[in-house]
Design brief:
The chain is of the alpha+beta class and 292 residues long. A hairpin with a 5-residue loop joins strand 3 and strand 4.
């Protein structure tokens, strides 16, 4: 039998339950002081916490969102009120998570007609090699046929109000108003077909004596913070749902009285007002009229 080495260190004992465990390898790196969680915790995968392409802000934001109860607001304003990174950094982080399938945002319309953003957080997006089971929907495979698939037809925009007298000048004023919306919000950059479709709706507002400033305010106030996938559809809905009533009826003003020009009487050379066919003033006409 071999002789035991008395200088060999004794075998490490397991830490008692509930006691923190420390790593025995004191290199220059991190040392974990871990205690087992039994309540108020969430499981986060290393594929997220050690993601090679996500920023640290995006990773931290994803961990925070995954720890929230269902129904908690996670829009840009709510997150900016909770953290000090600011709206721009939070918006950039949300776009990162969306690009890597950790987040899915879509606009939906409520029964009252209001458009809101529904956010879905995926705790384990599908890996290209080994798809993992998750509650997030499985992406559909791309067509494998040799020919190029036909593009999906563009969804038609909602109808907009129509003006009673669509004059060229009125439609041009409406077109200029729509074109200028992008200076207020870059997300409202409209294509030529969308502008042509929306212009009659704006003209209907202008025809009802609504000022261009009031129209721009109605179309650009309280827009969602998230990206607008179909800005023209949102504007068409607002033009229809918020269309103001026609202006009150006003009795047409009476035409001004006719004011004849001044000219001289051929009989007495006195100036008088009368149609140009009259050559004599009233007195001369009375004197020249035959007596009965």
């Amino acid at each position: 039998m071999g002789t035991q080495n008395p200088s060999a260190p004794p075998r490490a004992r397991s830490a008692p339950a509930g006691k923190p465990t420390r790593s025995r390898h004191h290199t220059g790196g991190v040392i974990h002081d871990n205690t087992r969680h039994t309540t108020r915790f969430v499981v986060i995968g290393n594929h997220l916490t050690q993601h090679p392409e996500l920023s640290l802000v995006a990773i931290g934001l994803a961990c925070h969102i995954q720890s929230l109860p269902a129904g908690t607001p996670v829009d840009i304003k709510s997150l900016a009120a909770r953290f000090k990174e600011g709206t721009k950094r939070i918006a950039d982080a949300l776009r990162e998570l969306e690009a890597h399938s950790y987040l899915r945002r879509e606009l939906i319309r409520t029964p009252t007609g209001r458009i809101i953003t529904r956010t879905t957080s995926c705790n384990q997006p599908h890996h290209r090699r080994e798809p993992a089971p998750t509650d997030c929907p499985t992406p559909q495979p791309r067509p494998t046929r040799e020919h190029t698939p036909q593009p999906r037809p563009r969804k038609a925009l909602p109808a907009v109000p129509q003006p009673g007298h669509p004059t060229p000048a009125l439609l041009q004023q409406a077109t200029d108003l729509l074109t200028g919306l992008r200076s207020r919000d870059p997300r409202l950059l409209l294509s030529t077909p969308d502008t042509t479709h929306l212009a009659p709706g704006v003209a209907a507002w202008l025809e009802r004596e609504v000022t261009p400033t009031a129209v721009r305010h109605a179309l650009t106030t309280d827009l969602p913070d998230e990206p607008l996938h179909r800005p023209a559809a949102l504007l068409a809905h607002r033009l229809t749902a918020q269309l103001p009533p026609p202006p009150p009826f006003r009795t047409p003003a009476a035409p001004p009285p006719v004011r004849h020009p001044l000219h001289n009487c051929d009989g007495c050379d006195r100036a008088f007002r009368a149609p140009e066919t009259e050559t004599h003033c009233r007195d001369c006409r009375t004197t020249a009229s035959p007596t009965h």
